[in-house]
Amino acid sequence: MKITISGNLGSGKSTIAKELAKIGFNRYSTGDFMRKLAKDRGMTLLELSKIAENDKSVDKEIDDMTRNLRKEDNFVMDSRLAFYFIPESLKVFLKVTHEEAAKRIFNDIRPEEKENTSLEQTQKNITRRTESEKKRYKEYYGMDYTDEKHYDLVVDTNNKPVEEVLNEVLKKIKDS
User: Could you state, in order of their start, the residue ranges of all structural domains in the chain?
Assistant: First the structure.
């Protein structure tokens, strides 16, 4: 089975994908792809996102890595666009408010996201990054990844423990 997990920044995509990996799915992450590219270029994710607005090669490189996964089976990928590149996958969308996402990301203390110096700044960065990504994806692919009609399952992760979200996803996997 191929599972793609999309969603807002800080919605729990990586967390749920890691939980699914514990039960036997191979795990891939666009976030990991992006963090590696940013690190290789000596910049932050926010800086790389801004560059990607004018340099399509950044997204193309990540898109190609994602497309290549279609050859595999039995994996989960957390990625805002994997559902688009792997249409035969079980498509899950996790949503969360920017306020809750900022709390999660700020408290996660991600060293590669050094611009998140306060909760308020983290929320501003989430807004900037979301706007940057939505703009690029609309321009490049003519779609909005936040449109829930693209997905087989939509889960609001606000005020839900990981186990509850995971159980909703596992139920959908079982029913598919």
Answer: 2-175
